[in-house]
Amino acid sequence: MHIQDIFAQHRTTFSFEFFPPKTDAAGEELFTTIAALQALQPSFVSVTYGAGGSTRDRTHDLVVRIERETNLTAVSHLTCVCHSRDEMTAILDRYAASGIENVLALGGDPPKNSAHDREKDAFRYANELVEFIRSRPGPNGRGFGVGVAGFPEGHPGCPNRLQEMDHLKRKIDAGADYICTQLFFDNRDLYDFRERCDLAGIKVPIIAGIMPVTTKAGMVRMAELAAGARIPAKLLKAVSRCTDDAAVARVGISWATEQCADLLHNSVRGIHFYTLNKSDATRQIYQNLGVESSVALRAG
Ligand code: FAD
């Protein structure tokens, strides 16, 4: 389903993010996870794109498989880094031919340990990619649904928070339908970001990125990977008291549950769960919220 129709039909959206597995075995395991999460009736799911286009085929194949083998809508992430205009055209035309309607347009980061020259990329910033995607016909002539990234705590690449809002606005003016945020652990950051967007004249839906901490190692890795995400001292303290990962997961899931309950109370337009290809934490959060699926959450 086109993302514009999803937003028109769902007062609050609930979505799950996956990454393309490296092996066939991990791919099958992911489909067990997807089957478990399908019962939660998300509005859509999304599939990440490896740094520098490293998962170009795997992202495509996973998105297409999800749409063919489940009743879920799958959004494909796509990044500017390491792609020429011809490559972008080929990627988008292939999605259109497969009936894929939605893309999350990202700047992306250059692959680690690579001396990639960004001057060679057709698009430097995500707003240029949004504009390009908008110029393509999409699967049925309606054009693709397009999302973009937002950073409640700021993106490290831009030290000026006012300028950063101008950059975000440029992505919306280029035709983005919605913003999906970086994960955050303090809802005040999301509410402040939402207000700053409003002041900047950004009126598209903003969906909030939530990632429950489930292991200490995962928390450290997350702090490394998730640009701009701060872990509040209260959460750090609670995690540091834990003697094993089962306890860390209980703390992390409880924290994420509180975040979700508060976001719903404050009329968030959508919640996006970073699942790390696992279903347990997300299913536990739904259970803690007292519901069996997104349908009950959408009902308010
Ligand atoms: P941009 O919007 O291009 O912004 C990048 C930086 O440049 C920002 O600091 C911005 O303020 C600044 N900027 C923008 N326009 C201008 C301009 N005209 N002049 C000067 N500065 C400018 N990465 C992946 O590799 N694969 C994924 O699948 C992926 N999925 C993601 C999903 C979400 C929801 C989020 C939040 C991030 C994801 N990322 C992914 C990470 C993302 O690619 C990086 O954080 C990247 O550094 C920023 O992407 P962007 O789309 O915000 O880029």
TrEMBL record:
SUPFAM superfamilies in UniProt: FAD-linked oxidoreductase (SSF51730)
Q: In which pathway does it act?
A: Amino-acid biosynthesis; L-methionine biosynthesis via de novo pathway; One-carbon metabolism; tetrahydrofolate interconversion
Q: Would you indicate the residue range of the signal peptide?
A: none
- Catalytic activity field: (6S)-5-methyl-5,6,7,8-tetrahydrofolate + NAD(+) = (6R)-5,10-methylene-5,6,7,8-tetrahydrofolate + NADH + H(+)
Its keywords, alphabetically, are: Amino-acid biosynthesis, FAD, Flavoprotein, Methionine biosynthesis, NAD, Oxidoreductase
What is any Pfam family matched here?
Answer: MTHFR
EC assignment: the record states: 1.5.1.54
Q: Which NCBIfam families match?
A: fadh2
PANTHER family with a match to the protein in the record? METHYLENETETRAHYDROFOLATE REDUCTASE, METHYLENETETRAHYDROFOLATE REDUCTASE (NADPH)
Protein name stated in the entry: Methylenetetrahydrofolate reductase
| Organism of origin | Gemmata algarum
